[in-house]
Amino acid sequence: MFSVKRLVESNNLSSIPSNYICQTNIQDYSIVLNETEIIPTIDFSQLISSNPMERSMAIQKLGNACRDWGFFMLINHGVSETLRDEVLRTSQCFFDLPSEEKKEYISEKLFDPIRCGTSFNLKVDKTLYWRDYLKCYVHPQFDAPSKPPGFSETLEEYTTKSREVIGELLKGISLSLSLEENYIHNMMNVDSGSQLLVINYYPPCPKPELVMGLPAHTDHGLLTLLMQNEHSGLQIEHNGKWIPVNPVPNSFLINTGDHLEIITNGKYKSIVHRAVVMNKKAARISVGTAHGPTLDTIVTPAPELLSKDNPSAYRGITYRDYLQLQQSRELARNSCLDYIRI
């Protein structure tokens, strides 16, 4: 199996192969990072509180975070630190498996239940990205590798809990838009919708400034829930500058996806972000779950949010077709949203 991890371990790597050197990254590296702005924090326990005043304030704060940032940290979410640590531990164990044991999952077919690979899309990537990955569709049907021992069971427990968290967030977002609590659930068939687990493995790199983990892009779907090990690398674009994300302990990072932007007709924007490689000695692991509608759902702006002064800004497209559009081309900022923008 071809992978960056194997490249690093087999060659005692001291220089970067030319097909991994990212010219865009080199040009972009001089942009001054903004390390002073703080990403909003949402307290999940307040969002589901039985105290109406406390919940109302949390919903308003959630709406502001989606409108102004498109990213926020989620604390007090109820997912145990023990489970989160076990997901990271067993994920490392998966990538440590011999290539022979992983090769059955190698695939370039978008809707295969389980697939692992490297870079983003080897068919179109002009530059290879410093990233290996495992992708599993975990809802409405759960699929995961059977090795290493306990990996599948750990992922099933984790993705079930993360789905519950996302469900409550979508209720709060519906209410923040002055819609009925289950509006997005019903419109997007969320209960039977798609949940994609993506585990990213960014190996150590001798010259991290020359490579890119993943270039600037937006996520498909409604919301993405992300956790990572102790090594940083995620940056988001805010007010024209890159902001490095350093999550508080035991928090999740949540970002709005392309389909939440479509539903809200642009009120809540899908935010551009990237994964830079920063570590010469240790691997960064991030675990994301992308939550979307059923594959055959046609996603359009919510009629209740449209008016004569605010007409529809996006044409309808099925979630399946949108995924195929995004995954068949180079990962480049929000180009897919541009494609369906009216």
TrEMBL record:
One of its GO terms (molecular function) is L-ascorbic acid binding. It is an enzyme of class 1 (oxidoreductase). Keywords: Dioxygenase, Iron, Metal-binding, Oxidoreductase, Vitamin C. Residues 192-293 form the Fe2OG dioxygenase domain. Its EC number is 1.14.11.9. The keyword Metal-binding applies. It comes from the Eukaryota. PANTHER family: OXOGLUTARATE/IRON-DEPENDENT DIOXYGENASE (PTHR47991). Belongs to the iron/ascorbate-dependent oxidoreductase family. This is Flavonol synthase/flavanone 3-hydroxylase.
